[in-house]
Amino acid sequence: MIRLANISDVDMVKLIDPFSGDRSEDVKEGRVYIYFVEEDLCGFISMSRAGLLGRPYIQYLAVATSHQQKGIAFELLSYIESKYSDQRLFISTESTNTIMLNLLSKKHYVLAGEIAKANLSGSKEIYYFKESNT
């Protein structure tokens, strides 16, 4: 089940969040959606407040290690795509994240560009978009 996160979910989100920072503000602003299997939080997806180039931008997508490779990221991405089906949707990932790169290819995202050495590891950040359905 996918639903909008609420403030009581923040502590669970923190347990599976591999990114720096805190999602509390994102949750308060209604920009985080969470994926549950029964009572188990398995993943989340968060939209950027500002977007990218005035368009919706997926800022974070994470799946708990114990639930990876089960299609949860695919479902979260599909959910957001349906919410923004009338707009060009952006997302980015590190060039070393082969699992995400493969997912974006499978979902037919289009390469938009990259920023060299954008990440602390020195890896590129690669940007993709998906056209609207209109």
Structural class: alpha+beta
Measured distance between first and last alpha carbons: 27 Å
Task: Kindly identify the CATH topology.
Answer: Aminopeptidase
- Based on DSSP secondary structure assignment, what is the total number of beta strands? 7
Major sheet: order of its strands?
Answer: 1-2-3-4-5-7-6
Shape: globular
Keywords summarizing the entry:
134 residues, alpha+beta, Aminopeptidase, 4 helices, 7 strands, seven-stranded mixed β-sheet
Question: How would you describe what is shown here?
Answer:
The protein has helices at 10-16, 24-28, 72-83, 98-106; strands spanning 2-4, 32-37, 40-47, 57-63, 89-94, 110-115, 125-130. By secondary structure, the protein is α+β, with helices and mostly antiparallel strands. It has one domain: Gcn5-related N-acetyltransferase (GNAT) (Aminopeptidase). The longest helix has 12 residues, at 72-83. It is globular, with a radius of gyration of 14 Å. The mean pLDDT is 95.
Quick rundown:
This protein is an alpha+beta fold and 134 residues long. It has helices spanning 10-16, 24-28, 72-83, 98-106; strands at 2-4, 32-37, 40-47, 57-63, 89-94, 110-115, 125-130. It has four helices and seven strands; from the N terminus they run βααβββαβαββ.
Write the SSE topology:
Blueprint: E1 2-4, H1 10-16, H2 24-28, E2 32-37, E3 40-47, E4 57-63, H3 72-83, E5 89-94, H4 98-106, E6 110-115, E7 125-130
Parallel strand pairs: 4-5
Antiparallel strand pairs: 1-2, 2-3, 3-4, 5-7, 6-7
